[in-house]
Amino acid sequence: MRIEILGDGCAKCRALEENVRQAVAGREGEFEVMAVNDPARIAHYGLLTLPGLAIDGELKLRGKAPSVEEIARLLAGQG
């Protein structure tokens, strides 16, 4: 599973990345977690409010750093 944290390194972006890393720790499966700060890549998703979270190329969240539990639900396909 490819997980992209879309942002510019702000506090929310860093919190989102940390929560994603906690959510995937110990989970079965293969996860590729990437921090993406390229404006062109961020624009590809039409993201105007940072941070954003994309899973396997689909934008799932924008403008917030959700809890570890919320991210875990998204990874399980329940979000």
UniProtKB/TrEMBL annotation:
InterPro entries: Thioredoxin-like_fold, Thioredoxin-like_sf, THIRX-like_proc
Residue intervals of the Thioredoxin-like fold domain: 1-75
One Pfam family cited in the UniProt record for this chain: Thioredoxin_3
Organism domain of life: Bacteria
NCBIfam families xref list: redox_disulf_2
PANTHER family on file: THIOREDOXIN
UniProt protein name: Redox-active disulfide protein 2
Protein species of origin: Desulfuromonas versatilis
